[in-house]
Design a protein that fits this description.
There is one protein chain. This protein is α/β, with parallel strands linked by helices. About 50% of the residues lie in helices and about 15% in strands. Helix 10 packs across helix 11 and helix 11 packs across helix 13. The longest helix has 19 residues. About 35% of the residues are buried.
């Protein structure tokens, strides 16, 4: 009876042009029955951490972990088909300049619907269930045989555990073709590659960059998906259309729901088409938690757990204290005008440095035309950074505030020990406009991070610079 019913459903769907609907239902049933090959789910790892007393149980987080569990299974169940498709994609790229091969590929893709639906699973170009996309790929690329797998866009308040949960999923995911990056660094790399291809006057550089990424990675995990840069805003839809068309699965964390991304940003109307694309390709999950897990209860209610790394107001006593801090960290070494490489062909001058410690005036970093690449270069060269004379900041000064947010994001990501002297205490450092811009929202995140960066727990962690030095000293690379 089951097989008769199954045949009837299949014939009904095919007779009405609903082959994709039928195939999706088969895939969903396969997911439900799938006997996993991976050793443990994300939820099971989460429960283990609770049992070991390393984290506390949270109903909201448990609910989120079930979404990650399902994605684990969906990725695993057609991993072999994905590898086959990527092989055909590489072959198509190599043959893109061969007219006869291109014609043959076109003929293969024009096969009937019936053969496409029931074609061999070993023929990557034989089936497709990909949603329609407006992106025009320049090469004669084989269509994807994969059933659409929705990614996850996880958003919520700072400290609710978004990054922790995504990392738990990433570590559990039993494939090699995955990449985990901070959003700023990812977009910096995309812009750099597009720029290189533009200089070579290559056609469709964005598509080429996306295709090369898709050949290497099936799952892309992006932390801190926050759009404040107009350059990012202008290319997001076009670039991610390429990734999604080539079956890259996006997992992202953010403090904002998709509809609020780049809120009140310059030329936001050009960015808006990206939002429905994101919501179509990703399951949007709101963690909806008011708990901030970055601090212990004592740290939330008492300043006694914080170290004196943020000094205010700006007076002679503060100046003396910050110089004492510099001399202690640098061992009294005072290199003036040290030059560090940002990207090939461009360097950044550091006014004062020594033994992995750098000191800047705020004007050197926030009033200069610096971006993520500059701040990343600083983080890669110094374990401790001192910024002097930070004035009262107005959110209406968007360029300065954006640089400040980028700087804090990168230093936090790289676990840099940050010392600041400022005109006001942290809670009164910004003049707000109440306009609800992305900058105002991101300022709250930056302040929250600055509080955490004063904690004993944060200060006890080795920076990425220190970790790299340790690895080098052990001869590991």
């Amino acid at each position: 009876f089951f097989f008769q019913a199954e045949d009837g459903i299949r014939d009904f769907c095919l007779s009405r042009g609903l082959g994709d609907v039928y195939k999706r239902q088969v895939f969903v049933r396969s997911v439900n029955k799938f006997s996993r090959s991976f050793a443990v789910t994300a939820s099971e790892r989460y429960q283990k951490l609770i049992a070991e007393g390393k984290i506390v149980s949270d109903k909201k987080q448990k609910s989120v972990m079930t979404h990650f569990d399902r994605l684990l299974v969906e990725v695993e169940i057609n991993q072999a088909a994905w590898k086959s498709y990527m092989t055909s994609l590489s072959i198509s790229s190599r043959r893109s300049n061969d007219p006869e091969a291109a014609a043959a590929a076109a003929a293969q893709r024009s096969s009937s619907f019936f053969s496409a639906f029931f074609g061999s699973s070993n023929s990557p170009s034989s089936t497709t269930t990909k949603r329609p996309t407006t992106v025009t790929l320049p090469r004669m690329l084989p269509k994807s045989p994969l059933v659409d797998v929705s990614g996850i866009y996880l958003y919520g308040q700072p400290g609710s555990g978004k990054t922790f949960m995504m990392d738990l999923f990433y570590d559990t995911l039993p494939i090699q073709e995955k990449s985990r990056q901070h959003f700023n660094e990812f977009m910096l790399g995309v812009h750099a590659q597009i720029h290189t291809l533009n200089k070579r006057k290559v056609d469709d550089p964005m598509v080429i960059v996306g295709e090369e990424f898709a050949k290497k990675y099936r799952v892309l995990c992006l932390d801190e998906f926050q759009v404040t840069d107009i350059a990012d805003a202008m290319i997001l839809k076009s670039f991610f259309e390429v990734l999604f068309a080539l079956d890259v699965i996006l997992v992202a964390t953010s403090n904002r729901p998709p509809d609020d991304l780049y809120y009140n940003g310059l030329q936001r109307s050009l960015f808006l088409p990206f939002i429905p694309l994101l919501k179509t390709e990703c399951r949007v999950v709101d963690i909806d938690s008011a708990v901030d897990y970055r601090y212990s209860p004592d740290e939330q209610v008492s300043k006694e757990e914080r170290l004196p790394t943020y000094l205010a107001p700006l007076d002679e006593s503060t100046s003396d204290r910050v110089m004492t801090i510099y001399n202690r960290l640098s061992g009294g070494v005072q290199n003036r005008g040290e030059s560090i490489e940002v990207v090939p062909g461009r360097n950044l001058t550091v006014p004062l440095s020594g033994n992995g410690t750098a000191m800047f005036d705020y004007k050197d970093l926030l009033e200069a035309p610096l971006g993520s690449s500059d701040f990343i270069a600083i983080c890669r060269n110094f374990h401790s950074v001192i910024i002097k004379n930070l004035p009262l900041l107005s959110v209406s000064d968007r360029n300065l505030v954006r640089r400040f947010i980028l700087m804090i994001d990168e230093m936090y990501q790289h676990k840099v020990k940050l010392y600041i002297t400022a005109a006001r205490d942290l809670n009164n450092l910004f003049v707000r406009t109440g306009a609800g811009t992305d900058e105002e929202f991101a300022v709250d995140r930056a302040i929250s991070r600055l509080v955490e960066m004063q904690s004993k727990r944060y200060m006890s962690q080795p920076s990425h610079f220190e970790a790299a030095i340790s690895i080098k000293s052990k001869g590991l690379y």
